[in-house]
Amino acid sequence: MTDEPAEALVSIGAFARRTRLTTKALRLYDRIGLLRPVCVDETNGYRRYAVTQVRTGQLIGLLRGAEVSLADIGLLLGELSIDNDLAARHLEEILADFEHRHANRRLLIHRVQASLREGDDPMYPIETRRVPPLRVMSIQRRLHAPDIDRFVRETKAIFAEHLDRAGATGPFTLIFHGIVDAESDGPVEAVLGCSVDVQPTDRIGIRTEPGHDEVYTTITKAQWAYPAILAAYDAVACCPEVQARPGSRLSCREVYLAEPDEISDDQHICDIAFPLDEE
């Protein structure tokens, strides 16, 4: 049980009223270890909380009202037990992440507005180019969206090691052969142009990417962040050029112009490109 005096303990109902949390939420927080009652009666299962826990419960309610995740709240509570300033700095990071995601959603909504008005979207100017055949190193895997960043870093390192001092003959490109999101693990292929001297290994395939026409838009690092990048894909997929020549056997892709860690948000990072069906 507990050494707390009886008058310092309250029932779950009274605790819920004082913290403005529901009893259902309190049971969940107990189950996941976020806010446990001081004691639980072994005979009837009644939960009792210490009055000193009320402020913690109120803080959880405020943070949940701000849509802070339970995982982050758990971290914040741990930091509060060490240093209030540490928790305050963590909240600044959470706020910055919220603002970043809000900016990404704004870009998506602007794209939807442009499509509803059935006009050109000035945010994503569309261009067409001819891409010549290119010999490439290739690594392909089935991935969910959260795994893409790690895959890119791994493949870039593998390609660089295999090339050694030889230079690439074409840009690093991600080719999406299927739907890739949190639920779907469509095949993703990373390719990099290479010379005829470069040979395949047990990890790297070699093939020739066919020459083709493609429609593309160039996006900044800010527009590249998920989910904002979906707006660029939609702008290209819905453009008249793609609608006039659908059905390409080649998949949509991201053709990289710069390393993400080396540029600012307003600089160009990649082209979102859709190959066109041969006329």
Textual characterization of the structure:
With 279 residues, the protein is α+β, with helices and mostly antiparallel strands. Helix content is 38%, strand content 22%. Strands 4-9-11-10-6-7-5-8 form an 8-stranded antiparallel beta sheet. Strand 2 and strand 3 form a beta hairpin.
CATH fold description of the largest domain: Multidrug-efflux Transporter 1 Regulator Bmrr, Chain A
The CATH class designation of the largest domain is: Alpha Beta
Q: State the share of residues found in helices, binned by percent.
A: 25-40%
Helix-strand string: EHHEEHHHEEHEEEEHHHEE
Please outline the helices and strands.
Elements: E1 9-11, H1 12-19, H2 23-31, E2 39-40, E3 47-50, H3 54-65, H4 70-80, H5 84-116, E4 127-131, E5 134-142, H6 148-163, E6 173-176, E7 187-193, E8 205-209, E9 212-220, H7 221-224, H8 229-237, H9 240-244, E10 253-256, E11 268-275
Antiparallel strand pairs: 1-3, 2-3, 4-9, 5-7, 5-8, 6-7, 6-10, 9-11, 10-11
Helix pairs in contact: 1-3, 4-5, 5-8
